[in-house]
Amino acid sequence: MKQSQTLIPTLREVPADADVKSHQLLLRAGFIRQNTSGIYSFLPLGRKVLQKVEAIVREEMDAAGGVEMLMPALQQAELWQESGRWASYGPELMRMTDRHNREFALGATHEEMVTSLIRDEIKSYKRLPLTVYQIQSKFRDEKRPRFGLLRGREFLMKDAYSFHSDQKSLDEAYDLMVTAYSNIFRRCGLNFRAVLADSGAIGGKDNHEFMVLSEIGEDTIAYSDSSDYAANLEMAAVTVEYEQRKHSGQKMARIETPDKKSIADVADFLQVDQQETVKSMLFIVDEKPVLVLVRGDHEVNDIKVKNVMNAKVVELATPEETVKWLGVNVGSIGPVQVPESIEVIADNAVKFLGDIVCGANEEGTHYKHVQLDRDFSVKKFDDLRFVIEGDPSPDGNGTIQFAKGIEVGHVFKLGTVYSEAMNATILDENGRAKPMIMGCYGIGVSRTVAAIAEQFNDDNGLVWPVNIAPYNLHIIAVNMKDETQVQVSEELYKLLTDYRYNVLLDDRTERVGVKFADSDLIGLPVRITVGKKASEGIVEVKIRKTGETYEVQKEELTDKLQDIFRQLSNI
Fold first, then answer.
1. Which helix (H) or strand (E) holds 366?
2. Do domains 38-237+401-453 and 461-570 have the same CATH topology?
3. What is the gyration radius of the CA atoms in the chain, in angstroms?
4. Which reaction does it catalyse (predicted)?
5. Closest residue by Cα to residue 561 from 463, 460, 474, 452
6. In 3-state terms, the chain is what percent helix, strand and coil (to 5)?
7. Do the Cβ atoms of 366 and 258 come closer than 8 Å?
8. pLDDT tens, 528-569?
């Protein structure tokens, strides 16, 4: 492709609203343009990178036994109402009505749609297992789109769904998908981890997120410093063996703590360690109040609360709800003399406390010398807190450390969550009807492009991996008024295109400094400069990743490029 004939609108300045490297560079290098908040156009270079990632995804999905299809983005509300998600999915679901006042949603995901399709077509266990996938735009009304392609309202996604007659078959498909995803992200050159994760609004159990390590990641990964264990922070189990603390034997005493709202303030005011306090938080769990207790230096993990309570919706009580149920504002909540209508559960660490300081359910007041079972009771103990750095790794090897990550893929074992709700059944070998068992597997294709850009750049611009770059080679004619340079550039363009290289020829009448700056910004693997020595049949070859340069005779160029690309493929 000749650069004068395509659309690559580069920018010298960093756009004011671009906060992260990938967003800045994809805009500056002319890969994308923002149409409105969270919605982007992919310009020719950006589309080519998307196609490279899509090709890798298709190859690995096909190798794992998937078959590609395409479903509508516009989905009727009735399907979501069957699954129960029309009411529970939340404001991120883009809803609309047609001229006949029928309700629809723009597809945020396709579990309902694909379940309805397969239940109508497959009736026997003999037709299973089956894995179908699509690559399609998805829509979510993000409250705060940010970081360019990393959190948008329209994005390109690969979503796959598998259907099975038994759990063993699902387990086998799940393992194939984990392997396929690992291959995909490895082929994209990414530094990533497969981590244990929560299923969120999708539903189901047993799932992994694929996280690209990055300081700008919105998710925290808890990983072992001595093994392969990794989990999303919200899912990392706590396996600390606590020591039992002794109680002083003193009676519970009421203490005035004016204007002391936080655990840190109360502990400092009473001159006690935060580990001797209990933090009490009121949650509304499936519309019922639940008081959750953790040690004062720990934080409640609402995902663990949701899983322990086997709940659909868990939300922190509002100030108004807190006053309604406990008669006090946040800051003085405690477990003593809690109304019977409120269930009290606690993290395992609370069981081992001795003298406890906690809220008294009276404004500006706390209790000290509180004792578990004597002064308050707990219905259930479980792991309800976030893991912290230094905790033992749940697999027994090493200790937990934290890293930031960008989620680019997610695999789920859905089980029968959707098939039961939507009556998607098959006849088993005995002729009995039973719900299909399902799996769900998603990759953010456009997000993966941003993650690659986030990991592969330097001070001058993007540095694309060879198999992801929109073009392999960038030929630059230094002076378009020099007939020899123009002729040699055209000859090399044709020669290298015939050799099956994807070539971008900068034939613009720009200053050479502009051409070089644009070339570095775009970040193609190899640049070939046709300059003053063109008359001697010599060109300069530069490797973008390493900065190495070589003067090469035209006749030796193809051999040299073979060596360079062999070297780059092994990096």
1. strand 365-370
2. no
3. 29
4. tRNA(Pro) + L-proline + ATP = L-prolyl-tRNA(Pro) + AMP + diphosphate
5. 474
6. 30, 30, 40
7. no
8. 999 999 999 999 999 999 999 999 999 999 999 999 999 998
CA–CA distance, 495 with 487 (Å, rounded to integer): 12
Measuring CA to CA, how many Å separate 143 from each of 50, 92, 444?
25, 8, 19
d(CA 66, CA 58): 9
Q: What is the DSSP string of 20-60?
A: SHHHHHHHHTTSEEEEETTEEEE-HHHHHHHHHHHHHHHHH
Question: How far is 392 from 515, CA to CA, in rounded Å?
Answer: 54
* 341-370 pLDDT per residue, tens: 999 999 999 999 999 999 999 999 999 999
Per-residue CA distances from 96 to 99, 112, 263 (Å): 10, 17, 45
Residue 228 pLDDT:
86
390: left (phi over 0), alpha (psi -120 to 50) or beta: left
Which CATH architecture is the domain 461-570 placed in? 3-Layer(aba) Sandwich (3.40)
CA distance 166 to 351: 40
Number of H helices, E strands in the chain: 14, 31
How many Cβ atoms sit within 10 Å of the Cβ of residue 72? 12
* Assessment of whether the complete model's pTM goes beyond 0.90: no
Instruction: Report the C-alpha gap between 420 and 112 in whole angstroms.
Output: 12
Span 38-237+401-453: which CATH code?
Answer: 3.30.930.10
For residue 86, which amino acid is it?
A: W
CA distance to 64, 201, 205, 207, 488, per residue, from 84 (Å): 31, 11, 18, 21, 65
**Measured between alpha carbons, how far is 555 from 136 in angstroms, rounded to an integer?**
45
Gap between the Cα atoms of 199 and 167, Å rounded: 18
* Cα gap 292→482, rounded to integer Å: 77
The band of 199, judged by pLDDT with boundaries at 50, 70 and 90, is low
Name the fold adopted by 253-382.
YbaK protein (3.90.960)
* 396 close to 317: Cβ distance less than 8 angstroms: no
Lookup: tokens for 22: 């990938």
What per-residue confidence (pLDDT) applies to 17? 87
- Euclidean distance between CA atoms 270 and 256, whole angstroms: 10
Cβ neighbours around 547 below 10 Å, total: 10
pLDDT of residue 197: 80
Distance (Å, whole) CA 493 – CA 474: 9
For the chain, the domains span: 38-237+401-453, 253-382, 461-570
